[in-house]
Amino acid sequence: MSLSIVRIFFEAMACRCEVRLAAQSDANARILAQPALEEVRRIEGKYSRYRADSVVSRINAQAALDWVECDDETLALLDYADTLFTLSAGLFDVTAGVLRRAWNFRHTVVPTAEPLRALCELIDWRRVQRDTRRVRLPVVGMELDFGGFGKEYAADRAAQALLTQGVRHGYINLGGDIRVLGPKPGSEPWTIGIQDPRQASQLIASIALTDGALATSGDYERYFELAGRRYGHILHPRNGQPVDYWRSVSVLAPSALLAGSFATIAMLKQADGLAFLDGAGVAYLAVDHAGVVHRDKDQFRPAHCGNG
To answer: Kind of pairing, strands 283-288 and 246-253?
Structure first.
């Protein structure tokens, strides 16, 4: 029986998501996709800082009070957070989520220096206490926030759920973080478009993928503009201010987790971002503050079409 490409849309992690796969029918595609959707929602429920019963919220609620025992999955994510902190020389810090108390990107208000200074004093992954299976935040007001890599982790986990169901042709897209399972039927690659960070309806490039992952970090998803300046949601952990060297950084890597983490680290490193990506050996396309496009390899081509 021939396979047709089916698109399944859903909402999760505060963004529009899609599973695109080859299946015998729409009904069959939805059956195959269901475990992946459930996995995304499981991870959202377990680690969202917005849910009072999540693991992250329980750890944060016990700051300066008590240790919280963690399961293997959470311990692995804490280890990954430690790796990112080291790899980024302290710029990717999962305790920096406290800065959202000062920044609300739904309103055009720039916080003053004093609240930012006070919040920055709560940011330091090295102060997080960990033993074999437990974690503790030693200071009142400290928080963990896995938002910097949670969506990408969910994309990889959802991809594994699809592979377990026997899906070999398709990809999952969680708000622009894409994990590819395999080519279209017939081995043709998927063409993925890269959004122009200043014109939402325009593409600046495209890339043909049969496997791996593509993730983008930028200043155009959550931001506001005031007095001619754009304030994006990616915040420097040492001064609490939005980084502003790159408009967007797109990275191709074997997993969505790596692609998204490397893209965010490049944003945080500002002018040193491309040197970091070159050292990591990943393909990238970046748009700087002046709109100049930088790419390291021929995999990113001038845009001519959207995702397909």
So the answer is: antiparallel
Q: Give one DSSP letter per residue of the chain, joined into a string.
A: ---EEEEEEEEETTEEEEEEEEESSHHHHHHHHHHHHHHHHHHHHHH-TT-TTSHHHHHHHTTTT--EE--HHHHHHHHHHHHHHHHTTT-S-TTGGGGGGT--TTS--PPPHHHHHHHHTT--GGG-EE-SSEEE--STT----GGGTHHHHHHHHHHHHHHHTT--SEEEEETTEEEEEE--TTSPPEEEEEEETTEEEEEEEEEEESSEEEEEEESSSSEEEETTEEEES-B-TTT-PBP-SEEEEEEEESSHHHHHHHHHHHHHHGGGHHHHHHHHT-EEEEEETTS-EEESSTTEEE--S---
- Residue 205's pLDDT is what? 94
Q: What is the pLDDT of residue 301?
A: 81
Do 252 and 299 contact (CB within 8 A), yes or no?
yes
pTM equals 0.95
Distance from the Cα of residue 267 to its chain's centroid: 12
Residue 43 token pair:
């991870």
